[in-house]
Write a structure and sequence with these properties.
The chain is an alpha/beta fold. It has one domain: Aldolase class I (TIM Barrel, Alpha-Beta Barrel), CATH 3.20.20.70. The chain has helices spanning 24-36, 56-70, 85-97, 118-129, 149-158, 172-183, 199-205, 217-228, 232-253, 256-264, 282-292, and strands at 7-8, 42-44, 76-79, 102-105, 109-110, 114-115, 135-139, 162-167, 189-192, 209-210. The strands form 2 sheets. It has an 8-stranded parallel β-sheet.
């Protein structure tokens, strides 16, 4: 079964100046660096973009800047998650008006206790679907909302614009496999996430794309392409080559890793993260670079 959405669609980090203000010129360099690595698409304002540390006014500024700067070179996904359905719909319309290709959203949640029910989740996605822009549903532990496969299949079959599913919950491969089996053609873009820490299992389950960080998309993209072309051994070998770096990112660094690598490679001037996010411990950063340098990724030499 051919799926229309494939490849690597990493999340762009949001660079800040050392004083905490947005580094807008750095943002442009981040996007250019990602495009130069052969990505199939770019996601902005996601959790790995530190969306929870960015004001509404900054969201608008970044959405405009990113879409204008990318200028159609690759598709752009704009993250629009919010607990309030009217705000999500407004964000979707704004992204569509500016030329976004897709919007991504988690189910409605706020904190540990305000979680959308199955009906509320369905209704919010249906409302965004009426805007008329393709939607990627993000099934991530951060929301704490249970999204069973029958609900996802129902949503895919009844909400025309819901086309992509980013599955990064525990046992993602099993959920992807069942979702694809039960959803059929309605699941146009089965993706995984979580920095590709479960990529091989997820590809084996039928996923066609991955949304990683922007740390090493030039090295992860070929793994996806090899697997989809039927060259399993090349995919396995490529994955084994990068797995230590991916593991360190996933388990030790989180979204700080891509910014650290980009600063090391001269893409951005600062890897500052806004409080209350702590900077990487020097030893954690040193090991990240120790694992990355032998891989010779584009990110470490793009700006030099």
């Amino acid at each position: 079964m051919t799926k229309p959405y494939t490849g690597i669609w990493p999340v762009a980090p949001t660079p800040f100046n050392p004083d905490g203000s947005l580094d807008l010129e750095g943002m442009k360099r981040v996007l250019d660096c990602m495009i130069d690595q052969g990505v199939d698409g770019i996601c902005i304002l996601a959790n790995f973009s530190e969306q929870f540390l960015i004001s509404d006014a900054e969201r608008e500024t970044l959405t405009r800047l990113c879409l204008e700067h990318v200028a159609g070179r690759v598709p752009v996904i704009v993250t629009i998650s919010h607990y309030a359905t009217p705000i999500v719909v407004e964000r979707a319309q704004f992204a569509k008006d500016l030329g976004a290709s897709i919007v991504m959203m988690m189910p409605p949640y706020h904190g540990a206790l305000l979680k959308g029910t199955a009906d509320q989740t369905f209704e919010q996605f249906r409302a965004v679907g009426e805007v008329g822009i393709p939607i990627m549903l993000q099934d991530a532990p951060l929301s704490g909302v249970d999204l069973p496969v029958p609900l996802l299949v129902k949503m895919a079959q009844e909400i025309e614009m819901l086309k992509l599913f980013k599955i990064e919950c525990p046992q993602a491969a099993m959920k992807l496999r069942v979702l694809i089996e039960q959803g059929g053609d309605a699941i146009e873009g089965p993706f995984d996430g979580e920095e590709a820490i479960t990529l091989l299992a997820d590809l084996d389950a039928g996923c066609t794309g991955t949304m990683t960080s922007a740390m090493i998309p030039d090295l992860i993209g070929p793994i996806v392409r090899f697997f989809l072309q039927g060259n399993r051994q090349a995919a396995i070998d490529g994955y084994a080559h990068v797995l230590p770096a991916i593991n360190h990112e996933n388990r030790q660094c989180g979204f700080r890793s891509a910014k650290a690598a980009m600063m090391e490679g001269g893409v951005i001037k600062s890897d500052f993260c806004r409080h209350p996010i702590a900077p990487l411990h020097p030893a954690t950063r040193a090991m990240l670079m120790e694992l990355l340098r032998p891989l010779d990724p584009v990110v470490l030499r793009w700006g030099k």
